[in-house]
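Hello,

Our lab assistant flagged a job as stuck in the queue for most of the afternoon. It eventually completed. Since we weren't sure the result was trustworthy after the delay, we are filing this so someone can double-check. Below is the sequence as submitted and the structure that was eventually returned. Let us know if re-running is recommended.
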Amino acid sequence: MAKKEFQAESRRLLELMINSIYTHQEIFLRELISNASDAIDKLCFRSLTDENVGMERGDFFIRIKGDKENGTLTISDNGIGMTAEEMESNLGVIAKSGSLAFKKDLDAAAVAQWEEVRRRMAGRLILKLGVEFGSPTYDHTAARRTLDQSLLDFVIGSLHNYSPEAGGADFYLGDYTSPEICYAALDDYFAHMARLAPLPFYDSLGHIIYPLRYMCMRDGQSVSLDRYMDAIREILKTVVETGHGIEVNTYNGRTVSDWRPILDLYREVGGEILTVGSDAHAPRNVARGIRDAYALIAEAGFRYVAVYARRKPAFIPL
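-- returned structure --
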């Protein structure tokens, strides 16, 4: 097996990472899972242009296997990593990221794919180009660089993780075994959202009730957003004052009625721009719950939903 000698400054940085950040088990685990996810995304992307891959999105997996007797966790995936050339080019070099380079290539390829599909479906399907910023509060420079793409129609701003001050872990990875744990997470979530709301890096504020899908629907806790209504009202006021909208996210049709308190608050503070999404993540879930969401929005007193073109909203009567 070939060996690579790290540059001196890289060795010092790696030692710092290993002996500080990665001593936190939850952060280390999150990074390993994130790496597995990147490997799957890379092969999934290749499958879009290389028919020899022979796999569809549903074929990919990340598996975590615990061995209590030996005190180990084994994380496996069926994605792809770097080639030898990519490893030689990127490993151990500060300020150079193979992942970042891949993401830049992915952006260009994704736009090219969108343009090709839009051309083929002309007259049959209106295909918009959008992006969801998960936690755009982290890196303003990267957010601005992405938004410089003039072809973008729509940008959702959302939070999927705890704030950096609270460790940055994904809410999906949370183990919500008590109401106290849930409310501590929600305290951080809405404080973080208050920092996101005034930023210019989104058109619609995404899935405001997001953590509840894991706390209540998955882990069986009986927590509510009642104690956060004042904080949510202030967030929604900021959304309105800065000319943004909010997204009613049906979570594949599983969270529709849950949105009524948010809609009432949004209308109370003068909100008008509403977008609707199903959070599909798979073809079978596309548009699930959308009709029910439209009915709920109308029931709450709104007359329109919005769709975006080149970052500008157009209103469709309900």
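-- support follow-up --
The delay was a queue issue, not a problem with the job. The result is valid. The first helix runs from residue 8 to 19. Strands lie at 62-67, 72-77, 130-134, 154-158, 204-205, 245-249, 274-277, 304-309, 312-317.
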